[in-house]
Amino acid sequence: MADTSKPDAAPEGEDLSGFGRLRSHLRVLYHGQTPAALRFQSFILIVDLAIIAFFIATPILRDDEVFLWIDYSIAAILALDLAARGLASNHPLRWLGQMPVIVDIFILITLLLPTWFFNLGFLRILRLWTLSRSSLVWHNLNKWGLKAYRETIQATINLLVFIFVVSGFIYTAFIDRDAGIEGYVDALYFTVTTMTTTGFGDIVLPGTFGKLTSVVVMIIGISLFVRLAQLVFRPIKVHFPCPQCGLTRHDHDAVHCKACGHLLNIPDEGEG
């Protein structure tokens, strides 16, 4: 249910009979601010979080008898959501070209063909990344006063997605290969200890490929961790484009733009 498009208004002159009315109604549900639309968006967000929780638990649940039933049910939900979001967009073809949408379509394929794409199932956690790019999500979170923390939250999500994607890859590629990885928790443990350069040495990926994998995990993992630390410890900024020079990040109590000195009129969090 993640959506990266901005709220669309119905195009001028759009045919509101039949199919046109359906598209207009979907736009209101996905992008509107009416009480009914907000309830719908909150419900969609809860369903999305439940789906992501299932993706995280997939390595543990995949041998359960009900796994395929849950898998196909989620595929049906995701297919309906993708179709609805496409109809709600003013430019469906442009919407299809967005990276989060492409990722969601790939996730849908892995859900519909779990046997064929068994080894790529760990990439489903990318759904969390697409969710973090959703305007639908941020419409709700901004009302909770979290607008100033958007970059920090997204950096946290990027780090978590990286950890789970790498853990899934290592679990799939190195289990039962004399690496000491006997289950998903071992893969997760190795990812975190390698990323933080702790390196206890109790789990070592074998061969040249294993060493190269460890190097990539360390380099990218440390970069994401440092990025998150910078966002957490630096002063909180607000996003407000300067009318004079276009600088978008300012101190929350700034009166003048620090780049050009133009007088700013930054609204309080409670305004608008």
From TrEMBL:
Subcellular location, record wording: Membrane
UniProt GO molecular function: voltage-gated potassium channel activity
Pfam families: Ion_trans_2
Domain called Potassium channel: residue spans: 160-233
Keyword field: Ion channel, Ion transport, Membrane, Transmembrane, Transmembrane helix, Transport
Membrane-topology descriptor: Multi-pass membrane protein
GO biological process: action potential
Gene Ontology cellular-component terms listed: voltage-gated potassium channel complex
Keyword Ion transport carried by entry: yes
Main subcellular localisation: membrane
Membrane-crossing residue ranges in chain numbering: 43-60, 66-84, 105-126, 153-175
Coiled coil: none
Protein's name according to its UniProt entry: Two pore domain potassium channel family protein
Organism this protein belongs to: Devosia sediminis
